Amino acid sequence: MILREHMPELTGVTEWLNSKPLSRDDLIGKKPTLIHFWSISCGKCKDLMAKVNQLRDAHKTDLHVISVHMPRSEKDQDLDAIKKTAVAYDITQPIMIDNEHILTDAFAVKYVPAYFVFDANGKLRHRQSGGAGINMLTRRVNRVLDATEK
Fold it and tell me: Fewer Cβ in 10 A, N or C end of the chain?
């Protein structure tokens, strides 16, 4: 995905956890959205989950936070293991299970963790992959939120 591109449709989800199924239309027009890709086999994803949860909790009324579980191997597709990891790491936001990699492909995700910040109109304002730069993500989320308030 490139900056200012519109949020892809949220289709092809294998399973939803912590939420009823959501569509792109459920998110656009209301408030900005952070979509976070992670995997149970990704140590860095787990290490940084607390930071994602801090963003979720700090902005619970003005930011959608959605997580996408992207399996990196067949073993990562174990739904019980995903549920246990979600509980262990306090992932209470909606989780889309993307076992078919449909969302992964739509977002052009190659590595986890990956983060996508969309404004309230559904346009991509920031993207990043990998473990470095969580402070940059926080700044970008705050910038999009500030622009929304004006």
Answer: C
